[in-house]
Amino acid sequence: MTVKKTNLKFIVFLTLLSLLVIPPTLAYADDDDDAEDVAENLGWVAVGAGIAANIPFIAMNKVRRYAIKTGSSTMQVAKQIRTVYKPVLNFHIMLNSIGYFAGMTHGLMLSRHLDSVSLSLAIVMSVMMVSGLLLKYTSSRNSKIFGKLLHGQFGLVILLAALVALHIVVGDD
Amino acid sequence: MKLISIVFVLFVMLSVVYIIPAVYAEEENEEDDREGFGEMKREREHQDEGIPLGTDIGNVILYGTIAAIGASIAYTAFKIKSSKRKSNPKS
After folding, report:
1. Which terminal residue of chain A has fewer beta carbons within 10 Å of its beta carbon, N or C?
2. A83 vs chain B: nearest CA distance in angstroms?
3. Domain assignment of residue A138, given as a range
4. pTM for the full model?
């Protein structure tokens, strides 16, 4: 029953993903100026969603870990954070999904200007998204641990931030 | 019930992703037409953009990224394996 439900979720997710990615490229294919403006704005939506989704979430996790490490006096803070963890996690997932879809649509619409920074950024974003999905939807213990370790790699986060900054700088020139 | 809420959230996400950029794009186009920036934009399009694929810097960035991802996946797998070995010293 649970496996069926998970499969259904995946089907819904993949259907919506393809619905999101394919129509804009076709709809704006004839009008270059409109398409480029929409694509540019989608890029900013992706950047904004990424910042809003990740900075509060990472800060909350750091504070929680610090509170647990320091001991009994700050345990209350850790407990309070625990109560809001689930809604913040959902917010993180939702905004990151928006950012990912917006970023990928932006990339597909501007695929004729493809450069190495954009391609690298798309690869890193996809790795982060896949590891997040693995973490959320897999039931196997090993896959969950693998997803958790990969998704939380500090190096990948730094690489992603650096590529976003480079992409903005190169795109503005 | 849960599935309906997921579909609803995804629907809201889709609407936000489509509507907001389209609205802003229309506004920007109107401004561009008024102030005559349209031609400048078209001229800019003909110039080379970004760091093209196949150049030295481009290859370094691309292969560096792929190597970093490969290394982090390998490190993660190694970490899981070593923790398993610690918990099962016989195997």
Report:
1. N
2. 20
3. 2-172
4. 0.69
